[in-house]
Design goal:
single chain; 281 residues; mainly alpha; 16 helices; 0% strand; elongated
């Protein structure tokens, strides 16, 4: 109860004294970190304290995971600082201020470059900080996966891939995040490249479903064609492609799907063809 009270009331000095008397190293380090993230505004001081905390915990092998987490947090803050600096530098180079960022799309860019992709998407994707830091862009304070998503939203694809490797982000997690971000920013060229890079660990159905949920039916049809035959009928039905749904249902001998298509279609020729096929199955 005492520890909870101190944390709620922000009495971190008192809490640290308590942990010191009780010889609780982990509790003392935890309270220091909480205090930093709630009261400290100097990032360098925060990083220094995190490094010191990690060094103290590393002396006890039972705290390996905590030590690794602290190390990764410092590493992430460094990456985020660099990202914010790069974005601000790009803006300065093009003499674009935060107040007239809407003009950014008028600047000629080399097609296909990461710089061009970043420039075009700055208008809607970046969040401007408030207060004394107005005009800079927020990465610091985001979680690892939020940082990854923001990088993809800004078109920083190669840097996002590097982040995945540097922090050992699971392949399936990376695919889900990149898929959702690419669909939302409607970068279908990059989505196609991403899908064809290798067989997606989350499957082709995930690509089709994500596009369908965002009402991108024509794009979805391209990925449905890559799905297994058993999945195709229902996916085609979701986007209203009745003929394709019927064809795939016939290939997979999905009688229930054929009956459903026959009920839903307004095409008398297709309906008659399905009924004829059903009678011969």
């Amino acid at each position: 109860m005492f520890q909870k009270y101190c944390k709620q009331e922000g009495k971190f000095s008192l809490l640290k004294s308590f942990y010191f008397q009780e010889d609780e190293l982990f509790g003392s380090i935890e309270s220091t970190i909480i205090q930093d993230f709630t009261t400290e505004s100097d990032l360098e001081a925060i990083k220094k304290n995190l490094n010191n905390a990690g060094l103290s915990l590393s002396k006890n092998s039972s705290h390996y995971l905590e030590t690794k987490a602290l190390s990764n947090e410092v590493k992430l803050i460094n990456v985020q600082q660099k990202l914010e600096s790069e974005v601000e530098t790009l803006l300065r180079q093009r003499t674009i201020s935060a107040s007239n960022i809407g003009d950014f799309n008028n600047i000629p860019q080399k097609s296909g470059s990461e710089s061009a992709s970043l420039s075009i998407s700055l208008n809607n994707q970046l969040t401007i900080r408030d207060g004394n830091n107005s005009g800079s862009y927020v990465f610091i304070g985001l979680t690892l996966l939020q940082t990854l998503a923001k990088m993809i939203n800004l078109g920083m694809y190669s840097k996002a891939s590097s982040l995945k490797s540097d922090f050992n982000i699971p392949e399936s997690t990376f695919y889900w995040i990149k898929l959702r971000c690419l669909v939302r920013r409607k970068d279908f060229i990059e989505l196609d490249k991403f899908c064809r890079l290798k067989k997606p660990p989350i499957g082709y159905v995930a690509f089709a479903e994500e596009l369908i949920s965002n009402n991108q039916f024509q794009e979805a049809s391209r990925y449905i064609s890559l799905c297994d035959n058993a999945s195709k009928p229902n996916l085609y039905l979701k986007i209203g492609f009745m003929h394709e749904a019927a064809e795939s249902a016939l290939l997979s001998k999905n009688i229930n799907a054929l009956k459903r298509i026959s009920t839903l279609t307004s095409d008398p020729t297709l309906k008659a063809d399905i009924e004829a096929r059903l009678s011969s199955i």
